[in-house]
Amino acid sequence: MRSKFLSGLTVMSAALAAMPAFAQSVPTAPPVAEKKPYQVPSPGGPREDDYYWLRDDTRKNAEMLSYLAAENAWTDAQMARLKPLAQKLYEETVSHIKQDDNSVPYDDNGWSYARRFAAGADYPVNERRKAGTTGAWQVLFDQPAMAKGHSFFSLGDFAVSDDNTKVAWAEDTVGRRQYVLRVKDIATGKVMSDTVGNVEPNLVWSGDGRTVLYIAKDPVTLRGYQVKAHVLGTAPASDRLLYEEKDDTFQMGILRTRDSKYVCVVVQSTVSDEQRCAPAASPAPAAFTTIAPREKEFRYSAEHLGDRWVIRTNRGAKNYKLVTLADAGAAKGEAVWKDLAPASDTVFIEDFAPFEGFVAIDQREGGNRMIRLLTDAGKSIPVEAGEPAYRMALDVNRVPSSRWVRYTYGSLVTPTTTIEIDAGTGEKRVLKVTPVPGYDPSKYVTERVWATARDGTRVPVSLVHARGVKRDGTAPLFQYAYGSYGYSTDPAVDPSRIGMLDRGVVYAIAHIRGGQEMGRGWYDDGHLLNKKNTFTDFIDVTRYLVAQAYGAKGRVAAMGGSAGGLLMGAVANMAPQDYKAIVAQVPFVDVVTTMLDASIPLTTFEYDEWGNPAVQPYYDYMLSYSPYDNVTAKAYPSLFVSTGLWDSQVQYYEPAKWVAKLRATKTDANPLLFRINMEAGHGGKSGRFERYRDSAEWTAFVLDQLGVPQ
Q1: Residue 629 phi, psi (nearest 5)
Q2: What pLDDT digit, counting tens, does each position of 193-226 carry?
Q3: Of 46, 334, 517, 646, which sits with the fewest C-beta atoms within 10 Å of its C-beta?
């Protein structure tokens, strides 16, 4: 993949040098992509797609690259006058980041692990030392050195062997999420010859200390579909296949259980799970035992500790419950599952971690994420919070014999704080408050309000603004949401947001349907044939906040990325008059064409999220909201769109086609800018600071559009 990437850059350079279609001088008008008639076969008959030609899976087509370069040039030209503001915003953001910062060490298998940033470094150093000692740290990964010479670098995962002598890791130097597996001897730092390409960043050692289990990806669809065992010193071609998932609507992962006794293969779709486990002592298990067979709408995850399994499941529990399964009765399966934390209509169990004598439960209630401890005797101990909108979440807890449970706490005002609580006494100790230099939490106010959607549903909204901002209907408003895959958006302090708040902007997170902030039903009401609730919730939250004088009509901006970019595209089509500016990052906007093509990475296991358009009712419904298919001749808000050429989640050509069609169709003179990162994928540029340059650019665009004084 690295050679493909370099080859793409070479061709791109040649294209830019010869660029016949788009001038290389400072542009005076936006680029206009040529229309080339093309018919997309569809259940409702062929659909015309004049910009389908912008798709090039090799990323080498000179005409396509020339067009993307012209879009970047147009964005450069239009943003030139705002460059000083963007630079100022970037400097302000970086000033709120502690340069030489360390993580809180955590213990695992007799060692303490930590991450350390040097001043000015984009990447950290990963290190360890013997647990309970104060000696020198041993470097595991010098990421700044590893990243040298690469325009993109990501250390996706690492795993240390049971004997603590070797470490396996997965790295990506392209941004396509096709990782390479490597191994080294920790004591000497010598990197072994073992190299396996195109893997998921998910690695597990077997108990023999010589075998690494990994997930191989399909080179075309990028779906992880095979679990293989690599024995050190052998050729990857001889790696043994342990499991292959034939159903392409499922994705997979591998893990060691909490007590390290088992290796488990977990396969998941949006609405069903299956977990199969085998003793970790076997270097390459010949057979795995299934905890419970897969069924549609049946989800579960299992952890093992001591002589039992603890299982989170939705069996008879829409919001999930916890059950236990004793080793002695494991062969009987669900028939002998015993309730540990019963089902609730108001409490959604998000995660859990079994300890000796109790279980720590990560749950949601009333739109907030919180922690409670449940003893084996049935006593429930809630962990208290002091703000109206906040987030607690279990942190790294690798020592199940400990009485101390580590978790994080934060809000839109309170920086992320790492805390431990004693499960026996309730005593708390703060381990670290994430430093935010130059930031004073007392200068800001956070609120939780509830907006009523058009169908009567109450939607939670988290708000933050500077204390001096008046609720008089004059303030600029910035609204964010995601609303897909059951992913919940929780409040947190973001250094890049402080500049907006200090300039009087009210920031809102709309916890719309499609996430799970209010339980599993919140997700069910925001996907498949209910997906439009996600879009109308967002619009109704905007109208509520304006009506309640939190923001000014005509001074509202919105942002979303990926599936949240689909949200932005749908909102731009459905209610363009409600927004002055919209930022759509790596947006999934060509829903129908993408979901009809199973060769596109990640398409098949998203059928349960969006529907399979080969089935007529889903096709019709998806076509009715797909942003690209619903662009019409009307006025749109000012738009700032971004993508990455090497994006593996949302292919670059989706936003490229959308922008091209908008340019040719919309009737307004509002700016439409398209920023393409030619050296990155879905997550944008790598490195601690580089992503803040991107956010400073679109923030400058938004502030300018909202008329915020600079």
Answers
A1: -75, -15
A2: 999 999 999 999 999 999 999 999 998 888 899 9
A3: 46
